[in-house]
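Per your request, structure below.
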């Protein structure tokens, strides 16, 4: 009887629990749903999407938004800690984090067309560096991974979206950043896309791998708001808060008060009043936000003059524009600006304020800092089959270095792990090196999983390969360029301050060559102008992380005639760099030149660098050094 009594008692408890749970669900409203970094009440207001447009918004509107948004590319992390501009405005997450320390960060991560490689694990180290860097900013971060996942322009397949989302979510957890970084699954809400929840489900990684559902709001009226409503329903079905990640009145020009129905080039513009523009685009936007069933918890308004950016301007003749976008700056018209302030400067919207992070459920902490690591490789050319010693120095101010790994890429082959060392000294001997360029990357980790990396390269020549290395500091110096000292440079110095119009250097009488390599250092990524006999081209390069000490190389395969003139020059489209040397693969055997006296350069003083058109560096003059004489050039 006691057993039966206890059983009945337990059943009664279970029944009561089920009733309580059922009653609880009856009182759950969309606003009560919560997720990582989601306000329980109200809407986080953020602005984007390039650094300068964001700064202009805050200057002109006078109220700092609760968050700022920017973009980076996964292949090189371009835009994370450097200036990156693909014609759509300047990206620099680090600069935004420094300028707006009390604002959340909303970061879009482009797959750069290689999502299958990302899914295969080829960019796992970049993912860890990205997550660790974002966590060090010690504020709420909304990570729009592979943003606009279903946009046909991205060419994402469903399997890779699912795989990469699951991996990134797991890495956020493994690294202990669940309270710092929220993962956003953003739809394009593009009207020409096929409709239906089933299509959206095919991209879904699973409820446990996504924190927010996002959408884009550009011209939703083109399909009677069906795509944005579809996204809102999907978020509701999966109990996720909704983030309008990109919102801008596409094809409207606030400054000119016009509208164009022409998506391609903005033709056939019609005049609109400010009130008409507000009623046609802004009012439906705010109505959607205010509708409780949509559960909108955050928005990003893109406040930019799209017409002034080459990527979006279809009539400037620069590049391949991606449609007509217009001018969405609310401050470009007094009526629109005042209506914007009236609509957003209310308690519903969370802008920058003392308790913003608390409202988002974020607690500031003393975040673990990533270790520092530097890689040292021989600067001199190596002979085929030589043993090459490379070393790394790693340290950590707030933790201990747990391991240092060395990776190598030989002449375009896939990167391979050499080995991982768990204690200093961190040194590797590469035996029987083959001819060609050897690119090395070292990754240091601490006991908490924070990571940092450094890269460099060396070259191994064959017995019948003619290589002419011309030291930058022995060339003809132009403009404001100067010589700088650096023990990591091949002869202890190079040319820097290639950072103002006309700065650079010139080399005359270059022998017939088939290829050249430039060894450089820069805190920026961008392009530099190189002219061969007056024919100019822009060479793309990526940041090395410092102006001295850390170098990388860029290669140009080009037929260079005998007695050519080479000029490297900073122009109005350039980013600054320092140059150690240029190396030519010559076609003819050349005599050894007489050594010239070493220059006596002044100590390097770096300027205060704030943008891609300014930079630190030194200057250069060039010394011709024939490193090896053979019969015919042969690359291994």
């Amino acid at each position: 009887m006691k057993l039966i009594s206890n059983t009945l008692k337990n059943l009664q408890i279970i029944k009561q629990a089920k009733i309580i749970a059922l009653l609880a669900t009856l009182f759950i409203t969309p606003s009560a749903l919560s997720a990582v970094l989601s306000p329980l009440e109200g809407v986080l207001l953020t602005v984007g999407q390039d650094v300068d447009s964001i700064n202009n918004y805050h200057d002109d509107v006078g109220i700092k938004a609760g968050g700022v948004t920017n973009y980076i590319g996964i292949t090189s992390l371009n835009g994370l800690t450097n200036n990156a501009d693909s014609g759509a405005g300047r990206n620099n997450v680090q600069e935004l984090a420094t300028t707006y320390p009390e604002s959340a960060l909303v970061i879009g991560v482009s797959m750069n067309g290689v999502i299958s490689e990302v899914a295969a694990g080829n960019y796992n180290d970049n993912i860890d560096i990205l997550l660790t860097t974002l966590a060090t900013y010690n504020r709420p971060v909304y990570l729009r991974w592979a943003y606009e996942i279903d946009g046909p322009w991205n060419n994402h397949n469903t399997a890779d979206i699912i795989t990469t989302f699951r991996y990134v979510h797991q890495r956020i957890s493994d690294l202990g950043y669940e309270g710092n970084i929220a993962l956003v699954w953003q739809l394009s809400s593009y009207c020409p896309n096929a409709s239906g929840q089933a299509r959206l489900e095919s991209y879904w990684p699973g409820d446990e791998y996504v924190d927010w559902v996002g959408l884009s709001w550009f011209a939703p009226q083109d399909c009677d708001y069906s795509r944005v409503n579809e996204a809102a329903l999907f978020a509701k079905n999966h109990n996720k808060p909704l983030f309008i990640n990109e919102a801008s009145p596409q094809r409207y020009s606030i400054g000119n008060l016009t509208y164009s129905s022409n998506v391609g080039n903005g033709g056939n513009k019609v005049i609109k009043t400010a009130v008409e523009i507000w009623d046609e685009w802004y009012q439906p936007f705010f109505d959607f936000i205010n509708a409780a069933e949509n559960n909108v918890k955050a928005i990003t308004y893109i406040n930019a003059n799209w017409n002034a950016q080459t990527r979006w301007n279809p009539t400037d003749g620069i590049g391949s524009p991606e449609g007509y976008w217009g001018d969405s700056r609310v401050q470009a018209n007094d009526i629109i600006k005042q209506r914007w302030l009236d609509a957003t400067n209310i308690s519903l919207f969370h802008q920058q304020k003392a308790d913003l992070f608390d409202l988002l459920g974020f607690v500031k902490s003393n975040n673990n800092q990533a270790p520092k690591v530097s890689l040292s490789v021989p600067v001199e050319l190596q002979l085929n089959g030589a043993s090459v010693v490379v070393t790394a120095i790693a340290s950590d101010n707030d933790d201990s270095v747990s391991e240092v790994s060395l990776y190598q890429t030989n002449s375009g082959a896939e990167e391979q792990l050499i080995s991982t060392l768990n204690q200093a000294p961190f040194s590797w001997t590469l035996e029987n090196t083959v001819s060609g360029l050897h690119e090395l990357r070292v990754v240091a980790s601490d006991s908490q999983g924070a990571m940092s990396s450094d890269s460099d390269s060396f070259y191994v020549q064959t017995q019948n390969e003619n290589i002419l290395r011309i030291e930058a500091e022995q060339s003809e110096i132009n403009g404001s360029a100067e010589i700088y000292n650096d023990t990591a440079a091949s002869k202890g110095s190079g040319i820097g301050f290639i950072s103002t119009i006309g700065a650079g250097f010139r080399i005359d009488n270059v022998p017939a060559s088939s290829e050249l390599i430039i060894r450089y250092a820069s805190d920026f990524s961008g392009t530099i102008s190189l002219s061969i006999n007056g024919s100019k081209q822009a060479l793309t390069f990526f940041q090395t992380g410092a102006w001295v000490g850390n170098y990388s190389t860029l290669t140009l395969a080009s037929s260079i005639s005998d007695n050519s003139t080479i000029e490297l020059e900073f122009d109005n489209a350039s980013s600054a760099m320092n140059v150690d040397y240029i190396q030519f693969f010559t076609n003819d055997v050349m005599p050894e030149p007489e050594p010239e006296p070493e220059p006596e350069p002044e100590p390097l003083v770096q300027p205060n660098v704030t943008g891609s058109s300014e930079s630190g560096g030194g200057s250069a003059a060039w010394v011709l050094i024939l490193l090896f004489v053979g019969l015919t050039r042969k690359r291994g």
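The two ends are 88 Å apart (CA to CA).

Regards,
D.
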